[in-house]
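Ticket 4471: requesting a sanity check on a complex prediction with nicotinamide-adenine-dinucleotide. Repro inputs:
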Amino acid sequence: MSTTQASVVDRPERVLQNYVAGEWVDIDSTGDVIVSDPATGEGLAVHPMSSNSAVDSAVRAAADAFGEWRRTPVPTRAAMMFRYRHLLHEARDELAMTIVRENGKSVSEALGELLRAIQYVENAATVPETQKGAVTENVATAVDIEFIREPLGVFVVIAPFNFPAMIPLYFSWAVATGNTVVVKPSEHCPLTTVRMIELAAEAGFPPGVINMVLGDKSAVEALSDHDLVEGLTFVGSSEIAATVYQRVTGNLKRCQAQGGAKNHLVVTDTAALDRCVANISSSLFGCASQRCFAGSNLLVYRSIYDDVVQRLVTQAESLKLGVGTDPDAGMGPVINAAALERYVAAIDAAEAAGARLLVDGRGATVEGYPDGHWLGPTLIEAEPGSAIWDTELFGPVRCIHPVDSLDEAIDTINASDYGHSAVIYTERGGLARRFRQSVETGQVGINVGTPAPIAFYPVGGRKSSFYGALRGRGVDAVDFYTDKKVVVSTWHDTDGGDQAGVDPAFEGTV
Ligand code: NAD
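Returned structure tokens:
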């Protein structure tokens, strides 16, 4: 496991701390786990679990810092985001190596994540533009109306393990708009966040504006229930997203909860196959398939099915497993032993139920890394509706099935409990347009296998892939982390002001 009980892996010397009110503090903990390298099994740090009182002190620090931070001029806040962006960019190689070590990605995948992550900060730095309100003059005689996008207070960001830099940086928009935050990284991959918080301190964010607590379920619950928390952004698996969303909104707070996915890729007989196969393979197996936008289920037109199967089998079999620092490695380890066990059990069960294994990654090894959590790319011919087809497996276990029409593919996609993304490969615009309109997913790819929105476009799925109204990133994030206060005003010492407010059509009718 990336996090294992302290007794199993040698206890590392490094013990992680919380970051509260501008200080690194020892954690009043309820226990701990060890963060370890999924490729080598080496213990990297002890991760204590924050008690409720440790969580409470972080939230209080954020609440204390809010008043001054929200009054800090917007250009000053933006300048600090720019400074932070610069420091993250300067540190990208070091951060990439931290991602490689705690998560198992390759160096190029980690750098790719950082590129996207840093774009979050860049987009949040546009806050002088995106936080603008609006004014309309003379909605009645000498009466003006305006709205101001106000920050609300303390926001919480809960991150999953698979993007240790990108997802914790959702806090960028919260902070840029004048809120203060408490970030809780995944207990599997906290080290990248720890380093990014050190860089935030270096960028000059005042004490208490950005806080970090380490923990798991219990910390999330304490944050969800805390009176001083205004809202919470969650990214993780669907079941937990649903629980967290219910809890936070039950406490009458704002919540956006991004969940899991089971993304379908449709390969039509009008696809430019020679150009698409590498893209399909990368969607299926990039980042060891530990991406919410990864293609999981392939629906392939029957007339080209055998050809596509053969090409994908060749691609999958050519992927070399290896550590993230091996430039020839096409795929890294899965996050931990528990995940590996779950994936192997799912393949075993699918096989027992009659599914046909086209590529079998079970039992994979990497020379020199006997303690890594290795699973080779696995491709299974499976029936829609079977467990292996329907259940999210956040690892390199992918399914394929032939279809006779676009309608059959769309019906299969829409039968899924998930609604994150769907992809079509075709060179026919009309077909792509029908697909775009018909699939019940939050994102659509057209000849793009991993249609993840960039920082300035909103991200979020449908059905169990997302709970909430306002999505993540971009202007949606600005709206989520602010409230539009509407002000109606008149001044009796201005022209026409003596008539102000007397218009019965304006005042007194509502
Ligand atoms: P996870 O749901 O196990 O954990 C996410 C966070 O929730 C972690 O910080 C964890 O400490 C916390 N947590 C764990 N158990 C909890 C509980 N019972 N109550 C409250 N909080 C709890 O997810 P993961 O395994 O870290 O990440 C993989 C999942 O995240 C996949 O399902 C993937 O599809 C999803 N994901 C979704 C998106 C998206 O944008 N929709 C992006 C990345 C990952």
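Notes from triage: The radius of gyration is 25 Å. Leaving this open until the requester confirms.
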